[in-house]
């Protein structure tokens, strides 16, 4: 929504947070910073008495002459400068289609020489010196408006393309400061965002967006359509800018040389047919012509210049409009004309040239649309004035940067306003008589000056003198009307400052702002109405008697009449802060008032206050706290885009802290529901989100239906399976619709843990999702090895539960060892191998299995045997007629303690029982058929009740179930090639089967453990699965898996040298009580 600009010229300076209170960006010029009269510009060599080091960080938008000259001056003073330019480097060699030669007169030459004479001498060869200006009234009649004699011996004006001028200035910059580390130039980069109050900005180049650190100063040298000016306008309601398009359109032609019939040293102005004109300048590259016309004007059946599309037609038409230069309008000129897009010049007029840390220079502050020919000169004058003020006032430790920007505006605003007046001539307000007299006087003055009588013409005076534009303008008050004096420009701010004193004294107040707690704030209706359309409407309603009118006896007695009242609906602290900001531009407020202030700023369309809140409250050292943010969301309405974005980010990252505050209980349903639906919500687990919904429901009566609606934002499958099962039971509780809905949703969500339903998006703050755990944990817990409290090094190759402890086959050293790990003690003891009585009994431990009666079994691969160990005694358990060959896995099952060995590098399974042996699965050769196996040396075997076998067929990337007596196996996991899909495995290792047929598989190549239900077509993630790594949510080459008596998953995380437990969390009794309460 557009905010009407105030008619007062109060300026803007940014302030920071002090003493724990928020001092918002101020619109007040510091006391004593009054205007300064224009002074002569000085060279860098003449400034030795001033401090030479500023140390400011400066962002300059625009690499035109003003921006480059400012950069040169500030770099010389010790600043760090980053220049951002949307166009390409002018030194690339190509002239842009609309490039027109600039005229550098005395003013421009003087400003360039303030850097040093060498820069000017470097620039001159790229331009063309000219002292003549001819006005052609007809093909045969021409008037010399300026001749060499008018220059009074001064150096002639230099006509130069802007690209050539900027190229020379860039070379000078890089030569002098390229190695300083304080200069950065970014071409083809646009200022995407700017916080004018703080100096924070972002720049976009192509698709890349770069956040820049906050600058001490941001200089807008970016032309008529300035991005810096737009940022100021958006942030400061007092900022007034009038951008007006001038009538007519123009295009630029470039000629290889000046037309032969014209003076090659002069600038020529031709008036063509139908109000058209051609302005031709000599340049170092030939000549250029600016062709201007009014759209829709046709002369003697000639088409309008704006309608031309054919090069030949353009050549003929231009020759007809301008017969005096017809010979120069060649076929190439016709092509140039139709290939360009017509342009329209604009004027710009601002009431101030700064706000916060941002400042405007050149066309961004005061464009004349090229009418005066002084645009470049005045822009560079801005640069030098600003640089000298900064070095004298800041470098001299007299003022801070913000005060200096106010001084700059006071000095340069009159100059910009005056130049625009002089460029356009008397306005309509002057009346037709004065305009006619002005035109007659200008013509007479031009003619008389040729005779040595009177002052030189205005254009000559602007070009060949250093007289301030404001003085030249005041000399013409008779024709234009009175131009304000410097004191009047200064007093605009002073008058505004006095308004706040009048309000506090109650003087001239004509409206009362009434707070919700009954306090009264006398104010001025005209001041409030100037802030926004909404406040204007409120003031109109109050004066019309449409709003409540209540008057205290004391006020009636004092004033004799009642004042209209406007009810604000906010506390006295909030109303006081908002009025302070409106009147003085600054406000101090305690943090708990911020939400109310934000609401008033939003309701009253006070954009500048919203920006101020966002800059101060949302800064790194600002006032965003859980109470403030929860209070903002309790408003139940928007409170500003920038502050809203900062608050939303804060609440999503600190949801539980915000939900723990009192304002949380007042959040509207839609606010809570919207936040809970965000992927960026950071909570410990999904149980926590459900708990806060239940608490919000219980905080206020009558929220049952609203809470049921909010339950749609809960991502139910992310809850742990134990939570889902506990909440699914609503029997015996008179809980109403809320608890019943929770039970229904939980029942439906349990299938996701079985892999029967697709998962919702996992919130970004969660580490992952796993079957059984959901997102209720950050992953597993290290119980042994690297990262465990025991700190004993392990390289777990196999693990088995054993009599309440855990057997770990440790491969840290050959031939390996079997460690009995005591889980509660976080330590273990060696039962076989190094550190035990059986230290030298084995050649190569490849696998282990736990048996009854404290016995366990070791597969000794190189010895091609299985050894039973009980009470320190060993016995070979693989006796029989079939001799083992390169065995890789072992399992023991049944009362007869049948030993199953995955043999011959995983191609067959041999059973040994009481000295007898027989092959029960696979074949003599490896293969991929249903009756074959290709497990390889890393294959594993699991023996379930009744002799049912599960074989990790590693080479075929599958798990085969082999029932007793079967000739072929059945694929129960994987079998769809090597891959990472839910229906695939990659080099599966250890397996563990439950009585119901569910199989857990250590999917080594995918760094995960998968759970496959009996008959399932795909598995579901049970552990790891988020890339190889050592995070608690990750695994790296998990080689074995087992399930303990409590249902916890235990994983041999070989690649991370640790053993992990993945167990479902305990059910939250607090959650159960909140849901059912």
From TrEMBL:
NHL repeat residues: 976-1015
Keywords associated with the record: FAD, Flavoprotein, Monooxygenase, NADP, Oxidoreductase, Repeat
InterPro entries linked to this entry: 6-blade_b-propeller_TolB-like, BACK, BTB/POZ_dom, FAD-bd, FAD/NAD-bd_sf, NHL_repeat, SKP1/BTB/POZ_sf
Secreted among keywords: no
Pfam families noted in UniProt: BACK, BTB, FAD_binding_3, NHL
Start and end residues of each BTB domain: 509-591
PROSITE patterns according to UniProt: BTB, NHL
Region (Disordered): 546-566
UniProt cofactor(s): FAD
PANTHER family for the chain: KYNURENINE 3-MONOOXYGENASE
Protein name per Swiss-Prot or TrEMBL: BTB domain-containing protein
């Amino acid at each position: 929504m557009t905010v009407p600009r105030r008619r007062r010229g109060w300026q803007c300076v940014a302030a920071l947070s002090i003493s724990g209170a928020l001092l918002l960006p101020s619109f007040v010029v510091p006391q004593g910073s009054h205007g300064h009269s224009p002074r002569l510009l000085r060279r860098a060599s003449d400034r030795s008495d001033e401090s030479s080091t500023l140390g400011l960080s400066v962002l300059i938008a625009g690499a035109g002459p003003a921006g480059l000259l400012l950069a040169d001056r500030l770099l010389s003073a010790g600043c760090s400068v980053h220049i951002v330019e949307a166009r390409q480097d002018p030194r690339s060699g190509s002239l842009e289609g609309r490039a027109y030669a600039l005229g550098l007169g005395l003013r421009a030459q003087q400003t360039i020489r303030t850097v040093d004479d060498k820069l000017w001498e470097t620039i001159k060869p790229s331009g063309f010196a000219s002292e003549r200006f001819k006005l052609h009234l007809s093909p045969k009649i021409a008037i010399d408006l300026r001749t060499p004699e008018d220059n009074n011996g001064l150096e002639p004006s230099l006509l130069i393309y802007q690209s050539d001028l900027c190229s020379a200035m860039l070379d000078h910059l890089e030569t002098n400061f390229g190695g300083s580390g304080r200069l950065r130039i970014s071409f083809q980069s646009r200022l995407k965002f700017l916080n004018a109050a703080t100096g924070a900005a972002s720049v976009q180049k192509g698709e890349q967006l770069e956040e820049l650190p906050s600058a001490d100063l941001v200089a807008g040298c970016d032309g008529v359509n300035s991005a810096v000016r737009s940022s100021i306008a958006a942030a400061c309601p007092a900022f007034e800018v009038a951008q007006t398009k001038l009538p007519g359109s123009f295009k630029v032609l470039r000629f290889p040389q000046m037309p032969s019939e014209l003076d090659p040293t002069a600038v020529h102005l031709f008036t063509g047919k139908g109000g058209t004109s051609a302005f031709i300048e000599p340049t170092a590259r030939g000549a250029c012509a600016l062709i201007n016309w009014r759209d829709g004007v046709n002369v003697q059946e000639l088409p309008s210049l704006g309608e031309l599309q054919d090069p030949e037609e353009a050549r003929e038409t231009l020759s007809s409009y301008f017969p005096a230069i017809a010979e120069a309008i060649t076929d190439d000129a016709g092509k140039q004309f139709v290939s360009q897009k017509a342009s329209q010049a604009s004027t710009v007029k601002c009431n101030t040239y700064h706000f916060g840390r941002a400042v405007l220079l050149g066309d961004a502050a005061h464009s004349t649309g090229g009418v005066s020919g002084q645009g470049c000169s005045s822009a560079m004058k801005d640069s030098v004035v600003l640089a000298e003020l900064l070095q004298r006032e800041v470098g001299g430790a007299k003022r801070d940067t913000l005060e200096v920007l106010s001084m700059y505006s006071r000095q340069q605003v009159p100059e910009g306003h005056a130049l625009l007046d002089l460029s356009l001539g008397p306005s309509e307000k002057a009346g037709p008589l004065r305009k006619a007299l002005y035109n007659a006087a200008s013509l007479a003055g031009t003619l008389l000056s040729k005779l040595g009588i009177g002052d030189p013409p205005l254009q000559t005076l602007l070009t060949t003198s250093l007289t301030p534009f404001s003085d030249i303008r005041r000399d013409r008050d008779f024709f234009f009307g009175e131009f304000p004096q410097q004191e009047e420009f200064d007093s605009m701010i002073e008058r505004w400052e006095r308004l706040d004193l009048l309000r506090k004294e109650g003087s001239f107040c004509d409206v009362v702002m009434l707070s919700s707690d009954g306090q009264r704030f006398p104010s001025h209706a005209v001041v409030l109405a100037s802030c926004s359309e909404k406040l204007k409407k409120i003031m109109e309603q109050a004066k019309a008697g449409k709003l409540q009118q209540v008057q205290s006896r004391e006020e009636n007695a004092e004033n004799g009449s009642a004042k209209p009242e406007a009810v604000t609906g906010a506390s006295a602290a909030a109303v006081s802060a908002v009025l302070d900001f409106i009147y003085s531009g600054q406000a101090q407020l305690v943090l708990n008032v911020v939400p109310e202030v934000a609401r008033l700023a939003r309701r009253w369309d006070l954009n500048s206050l919203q920006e101020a809140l966002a800059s101060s409250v949302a800064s790194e050292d600002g006032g965003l706290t859980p109470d403030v943010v929860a209070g903002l969301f309790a408003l139940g309405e928007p409170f500003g885009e920038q502050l809203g974005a900062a608050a939303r980010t804060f609440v999503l990252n600190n949801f539980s802290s915000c939900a723990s505050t009192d304002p949380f209980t007042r959040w509207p349903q839609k606010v809570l529901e919207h936040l809970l639906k965000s992927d960026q919500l950071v909570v410990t687990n999904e149980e926590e989100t459900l708990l806060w919904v239940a608490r919000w429901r219980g905080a206020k009566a009558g929220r049952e239906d609203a809470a049921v609606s909010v339950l749609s934002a809960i991502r139910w499958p992310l809850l742990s399976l134990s939570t889902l099962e506990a909440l699914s039971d609503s029997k015996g509780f008179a809980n109403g619709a809320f608890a019943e809905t929770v039970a229904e949703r939980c029942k439906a969500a349990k299938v996701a843990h079985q892999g029967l339903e697709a998962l919702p998006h996992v919130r970004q703050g969660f580490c992952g999702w796993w079957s059984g755990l959901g997102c209720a944990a950050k992953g597993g817990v290290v119980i042994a090895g690297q990262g465990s409290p025991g700190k004993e090094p392990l390289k777990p190759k196999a693990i088995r539960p054993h009599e309440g402890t855990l057997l770990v086959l440790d491969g840290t050293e050959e031939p390996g060892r079997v460690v009995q790990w005591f889980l509660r003690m976080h330590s273990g003891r060696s039962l076989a191998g190094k550190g035990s009585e059986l230290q030298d009994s084995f050649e190569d431990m490849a696998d282990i299995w736990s048996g009854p009666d404290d016995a366990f079994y070791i597969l000794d691969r190189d010895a091609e045997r299985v050894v039973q160990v009980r009470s320190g005694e060993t016995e070979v358990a693989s006796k029989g007629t079939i001799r083992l060959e390169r065995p890789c896995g072992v399992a023991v099952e049944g009362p007869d303690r049948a030993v199953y060995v995955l043999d011959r590098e995983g191609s067959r399974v041999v059973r040994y029982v009481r000295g007898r042996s027989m092959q029960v699965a696979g074949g003599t050769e490896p293969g991929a058929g249903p009756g074959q196996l290709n497990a390889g040396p890393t294959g594993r075997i699991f023996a379930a009740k009744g002799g049912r076998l599960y074989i990790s067929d590693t080479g075929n990337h599958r798990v085969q179930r082999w029932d007793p007596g079967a000739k072929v196996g059945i694929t129960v996991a994987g079998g769809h090639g090597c891959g990472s899909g839910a229906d695939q495995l990659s080099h599966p290792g250890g397996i563990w089967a439950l009585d119901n047929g569910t199989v857990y598989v250590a999917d080594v190549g995918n760094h995960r453990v998968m759970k496959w239900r009996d008959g399932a077509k795909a598995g579901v993630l049970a552990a790891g699965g988020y890339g190889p790594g050592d995070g608690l949510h990750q695994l790296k080459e998990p080689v074995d898996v087992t399930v303990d008596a409590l249902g916890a998953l235990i994983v041999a995380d070989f690649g991370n040298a640790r053993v992990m437990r993945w167990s479902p969390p305990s059910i939250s009794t607090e959650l159960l009580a909140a849901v059912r309460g």
